[in-house]
Fold this sequence. Notes:
The protein is α/β, with parallel strands linked by helices. 48% of the residues lie in helices and 8% in strands. It has a 5-stranded mixed β-sheet. Helix 2 packs across helix 4 and helix 3 packs across helix 4. 30% of the residues are buried.
Amino acid sequence: MPELKGDQVQVDDEEVCLDLGEPSPEVMEYARKELGETDEVKCSTLQELRDMIYERGECLPHRMDDDFLIRFLRAKSFSVNRAHRMIVNYYNFKEEHPEIHQDVNPMEMKHIGDDDVMTVPAYRTQCGRRMMIYRLGNWDPRKYSVEEIFKATVIVLELGILEPRAQILGGVVLFDLEGITMAHAWTITPQVASMVIALMVSAFPMKTYAIHILHQSWVFDVMFSVFKPFLDVRMQNKIFFHGSDMDSLHEHISPSHLPKKYGGTREELPYYKWIDSLSKVHKIVKEMKQLGYIVSEEIQKKLDQSVED
């Protein structure tokens, strides 16, 4: 797949914020070539998808505006039938797993960052894609369940998909498996595996561009054996195994766009900094409230005050 050139990515990328503006001409050209996106295609498919949702009645979206529906069309390269199936899957997933969606306060998920189990760098890859980094060896299953990691993951995905360029380019996942034990492997049941695949493939409108596996061991082989039946050939081809060879990783992601831990030049970013920063943006908080997330009265009051000012 053609890549964006490094010089087309913003240099000033250390700020913890979401890019909610219109994508650059380069990103839109990528969308045209890779997704078949044009103004005419958007106009016709948005209306067709909206009509299909009403006519089939397989789900009841909490919103039906263009900005929301375009996520699903971009995820499925403007195939209306496939986009419809994804939006049905999206709401079915929420209904089937209320424990990771309902009554969740993003501000109370800081422990995921405190334990350095999961992080999202403020910067992107050289091709403009967001990265999610998991360090599962830092997670103590006796301390909190795998559901907590799912909660944090879904929050990040819901925030990330607000970026139009993320809808177009997709994202990259790094799984650093240093330190994993059989205690971790025992948590990976077929149900957990199916939930992971649903979020990466069928039930969330964020394309997984690539998955990079670092420091895998025989314990990983046990875990991967649970996942493999759920992976089709296309998804398997997106997975790259690097072990401890950072040069191998650098063939995909430039060191100038990686944390120092992985032979890069960049600093880390605690998970909670994302939540703290984005909780100050009225549009983002409104979106999260519509999705059913809990927003404290203190945060809401501050936002209301800033709007009045």
